[in-house]
Amino acid sequence: MKTRFVLINTSHAGNVGAAARAMRVMGFDDLVLVAPRWPDVLTREETVQRASGALDVLERARIVATLDEALDGMSYLCATAMTPRDFGPPTFTPREHLPALAQSPHSVAFLFGSERFGMSNDDVYRCHAALTIPTDPQFGSLNLAAAIQVIAYEWRTALGGFRSVRAEPVEAPLADARAVAGMLAHWERSLVEIGFLDPAAPKKLMPRLNQLFNRSRLTPEEIHILRGVAKSMAEAAAKAKP
């Protein structure tokens, strides 16, 4: 199953190397960094040393400017967030959620926030699920690479160990995260045009719609239909104006 690990605004080069090592021992090699602190983080000495030989992961890794770029081609997003967000996706432990996900046709991205601040609310809102790792309530802080190791292990276990690495999807492909985000932006503009959404007081309408569409498991064809609906709403609103 296609799997990607996405690190957002990583500030410590050593954590990137350690993340590559954690992924490699579990058989994963798709690593994308979103706007890391160091533009040359993939080749810094500390990164290479902490990778402990997982150089193939670093060589394949990509640095991108935005989360949209990092999620291109991925259809199911898992946030890693210790604290559940209001109006955010449902929160599960990895062991609760990943076995069922492993049986789906999705391409899966695991998102990790910065070492200091974790994931932003907006980034969590666009995810289908939030994963929280059970820890001692008196000391729940996990190092970034340690969290990646736990998630990578649980995901590999859910996939059946190394015997299921080449399992093929059995259902129709789903729309990727970029397509869903583009459709939501189109809907937001149209909802403003018809007066349903007040941009000055949007409340939580768009995060709620985001979660609704995530639960719908949209296909690319359904994205086109929903964009057509948004276009028709905007056109009808324009004709109704005096």
TrEMBL record:
GO terms for molecular function: methyltransferase activity. PANTHER family: TRNA (CYTIDINE_URIDINE-2'-O-)-METHYLTRANSFERASE TRMJ (PTHR42786:SF2), TRNA/RRNA METHYLTRANSFERASE (PTHR42786). Catalyzes the formation of 2'O-methylated cytidine (Cm32) or 2'O-methylated uridine (Um32) at position 32 in tRNA. It comes from Caenimonas terrae. One of its GO terms (biological process) is methylation. CDD domains: SpoU-like_TrmJ. It comes from the Bacteria. Belongs to the class IV-like SAM-binding methyltransferase superfamily. RNA methyltransferase TrmH family. Keywords: Cytoplasm, Methyltransferase, S-adenosyl-L-methionine, Transferase, tRNA processing. Its EC number is 2.1.1.200. It catalyses: uridine(32) in tRNA + S-adenosyl-L-methionine = 2'-O-methyluridine(32) in tRNA + S-adenosyl-L-homocysteine + H(+); cytidine(32) in tRNA + S-adenosyl-L-methionine = 2'-O-methylcytidine(32) in tRNA + S-adenosyl-L-homocysteine + H(+). Homodimer. The keyword rRNA processing does not apply. This is tRNA (cytidine/uridine-2'-O-)-methyltransferase TrmJ. It holds the Pfam family SpoU_methylase. It is an enzyme of class 2 (transferase).
